[in-house]
């Protein structure tokens, strides 16, 4: 039998069930990008406060594929969280997602829900590439195919930005106040970036809409929880534990963190009761997470994949990897962070290393390696820029960038094809696939101005550091390069 509202009473006593009736929940949030991270993070926070205020149910929107809708709709939106670490696991059924929509199949249904008066928050986890922006500058990519399409087809948008602006236009016409836009993706100043691209898109559509967009509330956030992709073996294990089939359970860790700027004109859930922290300025927390966790994660993923490690835990076990990552965080990234009064950065770094070592989370290096052209500016290049300006070293950071260059070229250390998932994969292949000299490969990558801005691309020390690191990866290989740090 399938997990659903009708079968909740069949669950074992050891499985935590919703402390409310999911059938009595109403929609207050539309979430664009109803993927695994949202269901492990924001939906779980919302689930924790739902018994107190059932008006904050989530309408989850898939912007590309119907897979999530097809998996969860027969389950009434219910799914299992498997929370695990080295000490064991616990299972929890989440019921905060009460509606599932597929935008390509029925964009009008999505727009109606977003434009309706009950929707007070529109949140997003669409990954960095979903913002149709230039990652190096944070501005709208006006030549992006989805942007061009949505400007010409406002009633049938493809992008999150197109849906947001059309829904705002409909709310304005109906005399309904704008919703709050809540970005939950790993972008520096993510609320500001979202507001910038939405405002520019609105300007291209209509000056009246642009004025409306400028008044939008777009609080920035910092989100953190490790969420590996679900495998068939995960589904089998969950089915055995539940005695019910769950088509799309979510694997995650006990740790969760959410720091949010408190700016919600139409109200918000009491997420602080579930552990969220509301602050006046999230930027310093955001930078800390991007540079320490995400920068380390990307470096670890590229070097680990090239050395043959399938998961993060396996990569951390490679001789030299933990020493490299600890040094990157402590010596190169931490000095670039602004003061964090009362926050123990040493303990935070130790927590990260422990989380990376978690043997129960099979977080694939290949999964983390996706979309590197969109992630590097925030995760590594900003830190390198600050180190350059300070006249300080960045050897480990440069090695992380060089490992991405080696990986994104599409051939591993044995000449085998790598399935590179990146919006610029074809462009990168055309640039560097047939080049074998590390110096020429670096020069080709540095022409990508949407990844490397003019200052970095024109920096002779930065170029030389990349050439040195990439040459070492080609000559010695990733595993030997790591062993030198042991």
Indicate the topology.
Layout: E1 27-32, H1 36-40, H2 42-49, E2 57-62, H3 67-72, E3 79-85, E4 88-94, E5 97-102, H4 107-115, E6 121-124, E7 133-134, E8 139-140, H5 145-152, H6 160-174, E9 180-183, H7 190-205, H8 207-214, E10 221-224, H9 232-242, E11 250-252, E12 257-261, E13 277-279, H10 283-306, H11 312-316, H12 321-333, H13 345-356, H14 365-368, H15 372-389, H16 395-408, H17 425-432, H18 438-445, H19 454-457, H20 460-476, H21 478-483
Parallel strand pairs: 1-2, 1-6, 2-5, 3-11, 6-9, 12-13
Antiparallel strand pairs: 3-4, 7-8, 10-12
Helix pairs in contact: 4-6, 6-7, 7-8, 10-12, 10-15, 10-16, 12-13, 15-16, 16-20, 18-20
Domain Mannitol dehydrogenase C-terminal: 281-463
Protein name: Mannitol dehydrogenase protein
GO molecular function, one term: oxidoreductase activity, acting on the CH-OH group of donors, NAD or NADP as acceptor
Describe the structure.
The structure is a single chain. The chain has 486 residues and is an alpha/beta fold. It folds into two domains: 8-279, Rossmann fold; 283-484, N-(1-d-carboxylethyl)-l-norvaline Dehydrogenase, domain 2 (Orthogonal Bundle). Helix content is 45%, strand content 12%. It has 21 helices and 13 strands. It has helices spanning 36-40, 42-49, 67-72, 107-115, 145-152, 160-174, 190-205, 207-214, 232-242, 283-306, 312-316, 321-333, 345-356, 365-368, 372-389, 395-408, 425-432, 438-445, 454-457, 460-476, 478-483; strands at 27-32, 57-62, 79-85, 88-94, 97-102, 121-124, 133-134, 139-140, 180-183, 221-224, 250-252, 257-261, 277-279. It has a five-stranded parallel β-sheet. The chain has a three-stranded mixed β-sheet with strand order 4-3-11. Helix 6 (160-174) crosses helix 7. The model has no long low-confidence stretch (mean pLDDT 96).
